[in-house]
Write a structure and sequence with these properties.
Elements (H helix, E strand, L loop, with lengths): L27 E6 L6 E7 L10 E4 L11 E2 L1 E8 L8 H13 L4 E4 L6 E5 H6 L3 H15 L5 E7 L2 H22 L9 E5 L11 E3 L12 H10 L5 E5 L3 E3 L4 E2 H10 L25 E6 L4 E6 L12 H8 L9 E3 L1 H4 L14 E3 L2 H6 L6 H4 L11 H11 L19 E4 L10 E4 L15
Parallel strand pairs: 1-4, 2-5, 3-8, 15-17
Antiparallel strand pairs: 1-7, 5-8, 6-7, 9-10, 9-11, 12-13, 14-15, 14-16, 18-19
Helix pairs in contact: 1-3, 1-5
Length: about 450
Amino acid sequence: MSTSGMFADLPVDVGLAHEGERIRKPQMHIEFGGPNVKEKFELLRVKGPEEVEDGKITIVGPDVQGLEEGGSFPFGIYIEVSGEKLEVEMEGVMERRIHDFCNYIEGFMHLNQRDSIWLRLDKKAVKKGLNLEVTGKALQRLFKSEMAIIEKIQITFITDPKKVKKKFQEALEIYEGRDARARGMTDNDVDVFYGCTLCQSFAPSHICVISAQRYANCGAISWFDGRAASKVDPKGPVFEIPKEKCLDEWKGEYEGINKIVSEKSLGEINRVQLYTAFGYPHTSCGCFEITTFYVPECDGLGVVHRDFRGQTPSGLTFGAIADSTGGGRQVEGFHGISFEYMRSPKFLQVDGGWNRIIWLPTEVKEKLKEYIPAELYDKIATEADATDVTALKEFLREKRHPVVERWVETPPEAIEAPTLEVMPSTPSGGITIILKNAKIHAEKVIIKRAK
């Protein structure tokens, strides 16, 4: 795609060439959402034809040029579509395409989804004329060109903080309603899983595997959403994955998944196990809602979400952990996931599930309160209880967290007399000591020249 044809009248280029573009803070004119802003969302709804005015773009609050340069602001994108063949269960998948289409726009960076979006507009692009009106025109044309079943589309951008806050609450209720539909289903109830490659522009070897009990990492696509998307566009970025032979039901490894993952990653990833953060964990993209991190000193897993601004007890921020595991890599213990997967009975079942979770931010703990086993709730630390590994270990021991049973206290071993070979003095007066088959446990070693 380029500015020729349907984009020729826009002041900035629109096309695949801009997908994956990163806008750093020095180049940023303005940002919407992000980790420092609580209220932000994107929402797409299927409506009746009489409720949608095709081509309409509404901006509630100031447009880009009316906001202070360099600032971070609450933001909402509300898209309404209609079409004879559209179904409500397609909403989540079409909503996820906002991510793709925004990133086709020159000077526009879109990260994440739902209520964790983070958008930046480049200074040069804004000088050319990029604003929300232009963004709306580009999105409308992209949606209708790529999804012919959309007959009418209208878009509302909200920058007024009060209006964002009100619509934000409505969006959260709708997300919860969508998520609740899939709860109760099991992976054994379905014949196929679904795959998604929407994030491959940022993570080339990543294929999200969506099962009935494991949501997409972004938290925006359920098994039902995958089914709807694959029906609408069988050759699109969301597609069926035949389960085929089950290689390990407990770990969640299937022959069909391994074949598709190997094919779509060009052989980079050949095995995936859905229910573990170790061995062959599901790959991580860049849009995951949460990531686990392994704490070897405690032999447990911490959990941190992208809106947490502090450091985890391991000394790493969410960003540092995300950088180490994103991009489609398999990194043991570091595992990008969704909130909804943490509500699943399959949540890291191989690793001990909630019994292996030792730390998480207060916000996450409160959000998932009804899904954390009651007997564990007070035994899992937050940033209020531990900010480093020493304090975390003390907390877990004091609360008798189940993970403590995994700890093996190794008593100090007796020092075995090593075999020492003392070589002749070197010209500089030093000596060489060679220890053979030595096993030494010592606080300090002091070597002095004999008189």
